[in-house]
Amino acid sequence: MQAPKSFHLLFRWMSLDDETSPSDASKSVQLVEKIAAAARHLDDEQQLELREFLDTLLAGDADSKQLVEVFKSESFYFVWRTDDGPRRYLTLIREALAAAGPARSTASTSSMARRSRR
User: Which residue has better confidence, 90 or 106?
Assistant: First the structure.
């Protein structure tokens, strides 16, 4: 499955701070905070796209090999120490997005923009 642009953009924002290591993803409160901070740089449409992508991906029956494919990028390299590492990390990202605040739907964003122009 091809990751949306917002998925890679999230990691670019995260990489500005320091290196991201998924090895301790389930234990790292700092990593959740880092992902949430990076997510705040995404606009509402990008956050919504990313949440929908993660919900679809994690709700499906993708195995570890398929989930690893999502992380392949010319810019990042991940080493997974366990088979469930990619799923745990994607779940962590989804939880951090929720912590970053609600992404409004495109329809509500458009209606807010119209109201602000009045």
Answer: 90
